[in-house]
Specification:
With about 350 residues, the protein is an alpha+beta fold. Among the domains are: about 10-65 and about 235-355, no CATH class; about 75-120 and about 220-230, no CATH class. The protein is about 20% helix and about 35% strand. It has eight helices and 20 strands. It has helices at about 10-20, 30, 45-50, 80-85, 255-265, 275-280, 280-290, 295-310, and strands spanning about 50-65, 75-80, 90, 105-110, 115, 125-130, 135-140, 150, 160-165, 170-180, 190, 200, 210-215, 220-230, 235-245, 270, 315, 320-330, 340-345, 350-355. Strands 1, 15, 16, 17, 18, 19 and 20 form a seven-stranded antiparallel sheet that branches. Strands 2, 3, 4, 5 and 14 form a five-stranded mixed sheet that branches. A two-stranded antiparallel sheet has the order 6-13. The longest helix has 19 residues, at about 295-310. It is rod-shaped, with a radius of gyration of 51 Å. It binds zinc ion (4 copies).
């Protein structure tokens, strides 16, 4: 295996790159203008303001988090218009982004609503009144549906009256005579005061309609079903950059991580494709050209992260893991203010960082 040493950019190159980048958002004139001289970027030279050059290295990798989609199964709900109105429906034109979603994980889908006929009323919306069986009237409870027998004649239609009679001899006697009943006129029956003799009264359960509104469908003959299921989340991946540095980088870790992530194609480093066998001095030192105790420490840390990510289900570490040469320039302003400028990568591809 032939390995080529990754050559870091030289301090002059780093300094010049930093000046160009910094001039966009730092007022360098304020820090470097000297009396009697015309200020120009070219006049700020490394030989004068870079006091020391430190060689180090950083490890860069990305932790990949996959958005988990809910494993909840779909539930079918059924109900009438009222239950439909009580439900909160959701409409999705496209998939949702999990990190932006504020609602519940399982929701009722608007486009899942289906209408079907109510089986209780066979779609008519009404059911036959069970009290009158649809006949609209019921048997009169007063006469039980039959006419009432006349009490006066004991339902015979006749009554017996006594007549006072005196015969030829002048003897007084009573003679019985049968005549039609005066109450029922001989019909043996009297009219029921409640039903007027018809034997039937209007059904009070259906208001003499013969049918009642169907309770299941609420009267319109239809029921609905709809689906409750997980929100359609976009399969989301978040790549969180992690930076481990063998020297202090003055709080630049976050910015470095993001910048490397953006420029990963352009920044040259040592790619570790087999962390178990390559995260060690034997593999790294020949390419880097140097190795330190501090570097050994961050390599061990990286190994630990790699191992724990292998066991962890929340995230994985993207391969390859990169090791970049890091050059730290100890710099000063014209007024003697100290700050650092960092370069990450090789002379063929690097990034610079630094604030005054
Ligand atoms: Zn119904
Ligand atoms: Zn009656
Ligand atoms: Zn009678
Ligand atoms: Zn009825």
């Amino acid at each position: 295996m032939s390995q080529i040493i990754i050559k870091s950019p030289n301090p002059d190159v780093i300094w010049n790159s930093w000046k160009q980048k910094a001039s966009r958002n730092i007022n360098l004139e304020k820090h470097y203008k000297t009396k009697g001289a015309v200020f120009s970027l070219d006049s700020i030279i490394a030989a004068e303001y870079v006091k020391a050059v430190n060689k180090a290295a950083i490890v860069f990798f990305e932790e990949i988090y996959e958005a988990t989609t809910s494993s909840a199964k779909k539930i079918i709900k059924q109900g009438n218009v009222k239950s439909l109105q009580k439900e909160q429906f959701y409409e999705f034109k496209t998939v949702a982004v999990k990190s932006e979603w504020k609602g519940p994980e399982n929701v009722a889908y608007l486009n899942s609503i289906q209408e079907y006929g109510c089986s209780s009323c066979r779609g008519s919306g009404t059911i036959t009144c069970s009290k009158c069986n649809g006949r609209k009237d019921i048997i009169c409870s007063n006469c039980k549906g039959t006419t009432i027998g006349c009490k006066n004649c004991n339902s015979t239609g006749k009554i017996t009256i006594r007549l006072s009679v005196i015969d030829q001899q002048g003897n007084k006697k009573n003679v019985e005579k049968t005549v039609p009943c005066t109450q029922c006129s001989g019909t043996k029956r009297v009219e029921c005061s409640r039903c007027g003799g018809s034997g039937k009264v209007p059904c009070d359960s259906c208001q003499a309609e013969g049918v009642k509104s169907c309770k299941d469908c609420g009267g319109n003959g239809v029921l609905f079903k709809w689906i409750i299921q997980p929100v359609p989340f976009k399969a989301e991946r978040t790549a969180k950059p992690v930076i481990l540095s063998s020297i202090k980088v003055s709080g630049f870790e976050k910015e470095m991580g993001v910048e490397i992530q953006k420029a990963i194609e352009r920044v040259e480093g040592i790619a570790i494709r087999d962390p178990y066998n390559e995260l060690n001095q034997r593999f790294i030192e020949p390419s880097l050209g140097y190795f330190t105790k501090e570097l050994s420490k961050i390599i061990n840390e990286t190994q630990k992260s790699w191992k724990s990510a292998s066991k962890n289900t929340d995230f994985t570490i993207r391969k390859p893991i990169y090791i970049y040469p890091l050059i730290a320039l100890d710099c000063e302003t014209a007024k003697g203010k100290k700050f650092q400028v960092f370069s990450i990568g090789s002379e063929r591809g690097y990034l610079v960082f630094g604030k005054i």
